[in-house]
Amino acid sequence: SEIVIASTRQEIEEQWNLYDGFEVILARKLRARVKRGANCYGRYMPRMVIIPPGVEFGHIIHDFEMDGEEENPCPASEDPPIWSQIMRFFTNPRKPMILAVARPYPEKNITSLVKAFGECRPLRELANLTLIMGNREAISKMNNMSAAVLTSVLTLIDEYDLYGQVAYPKHHKHSEVPDIYRLAARTKGAFVNVAYFEQFGVTLIEAAMNGLPIIATKNGAPVEINQVLNNGLLVDPHDQNAIADALYKLLSDKQLWSRCRENGLKNIHQFSWPEHCKNYLSRILTLGPRSPAIGGKQEQKAPISGRKHIIVISVDSVNKEDLVRIIRNTIEVTRTEKMSGSTGFVLSTSLTISEIRSLLVSAGMLPTVFDAFICNSGSNIYYPLYSGDTPSSSQVTPAIDQNHQAHIEYRWGGEGLRKYLVKWATSVVERKGRIERQIIFEDPEHSSTYCLAFRVVNPNHLPPLKELRKLMRIQSLRCNALYNHSATRLSVVPIHASRSQALRYLCIRWGIELPNVAVLVGESGDSDYEELLGGLHRTVILKGEFNIPANRIHTVRRYPLQDVVALDSSNIIGIEGYSTDDMKSALQQIGVLTQ
């Protein structure tokens, strides 16, 4: 991501910091290097942006003046029904109301609030306490956790003899919550949230919207909310005396109360939806376009641009002899369609372009039987184009797709990533007694600008890919890693590079509908095998003993394949063997060939 939007700084520093892909201190260092124009050596972390969520203000009613004392703060004829349901609990309903709105969960710390109120006689004489703890029918029907909290609250009310001073109604409607805030504000009370930790605290915003000052926990987002609104006091939720003292101070000091109320109403617009949208759009406008322009000579010369159907051969689980036979048989059964120009072929593989060329030469096949080659596990796309005016095999040159290269370059670690991987490879060893032997080595011969290849000498001791991916995320290196060639090679490619993404790139660039694409795969393959199966394209799974048995790449999978791929989809079919009859039947079934 270019940016990640969070509600508060606390969310960034204490919640996002738990993830492998983000670390506050490293993110600051990288930002500082970028500002100085220094090299980050391929490391990148998304920019964290704080935009508080918006709140709807349409239902707010400010229908009274708070500057002077009123003879009757709660005239019965004008009261919303919920007011009388709360006021019936109080011996003296004229006292300021301390309001708490929270479900009866232990982390909301309601019992500490009741203890603070019950143990502070001056506070009890000054104010009433209202606890809105959700809706309930009977305590016996509540879940054990909520029932335990509510039972503790009722026990404390009895222990401190708070009858007539504490309200705890059983029912209220969601639409009545604003009326409850208004009641507390009309009595010149306060809203209190002393949760042990609060991730954001929308109730604090709602209280401020209704002109109600707050007492809030100092743990979590309320700290930042109060910095913006400046409409209350923060307390340690573990300190009952501090809670009681803050409540008494706010309610007994009329000037402080009025100042907090006015500040809240003046600054609350910063939590409105229009303000949220304005901040969001201003951040989005700072992002530059990432999609490269598409153009160049390849636009006119590449034959793939005129195809109606594309057959992608992406079979990794067979030896080279069987792969050549699969290619020959597929071309044989589609000879008519290929000659008419309606059907083209793409070879999608982890091989390099040199290995592909050697494979085709050894099989006596011309590169031009294919419209494109997806090589190096999706990090390179080549088109076999004639370099002269006369078609001849000696004049066929594989032309790399420069637009695709520009696309996948995004956040590529380059040399910094290579150095980190070389260092990591030395730590992956096979232990035999006291002897340690390195099993992963850099493979420059099979590497390219956007594919770092490593040779594996003992696949049985390979670490899971998720461990390598985790290590790279921690180091803020953004890339894809995969095992291929029966786990004898490790390839690391850009985050936007993979065989499945390269296929979709080809379809978008050359205007080919994905349902008109058929992908041929084996029963297993490289570690990106699963990505090739699902989607809008058609998939043909070639089954049979010619498939190399699934290696450690897939045997360590902790979930069934059907959990991530809908194998019963009508877009996926399986056939036994790869004879011309088998291939013809399969391609007819998926609509590439006519019956």
TrEMBL record:
Residues 338-541 form the Sucrose phosphatase-like domain. GO terms for molecular function: sucrose-phosphate synthase activity. It catalyses: beta-D-fructose 6-phosphate + UDP-alpha-D-glucose = sucrose 6(F)-phosphate + UDP + H(+). The keyword Glycosyltransferase applies. Its EC number is 2.4.1.14. The keyword Glycosyltransferase applies. Residues 92-265 form the Glycosyl transferase family domain. Keywords: Glycosyltransferase, Transferase. It holds the Pfam family S6PP. Plays a role in photosynthetic sucrose synthesis by catalyzing the rate-limiting step of sucrose biosynthesis from UDP-glucose and fructose- 6-phosphate. Involved in the regulation of carbon partitioning in the leaves of plants. May regulate the synthesis of sucrose and therefore play a major role as a limiting factor in the export of photoassimilates out of the leaf. Plays a role for sucrose availability that is essential for plant growth and fiber elongation. Belongs to the glycosyltransferase 1 family. This is sucrose-phosphate synthase. It comes from Oryza sativa subsp. japonica (Rice).
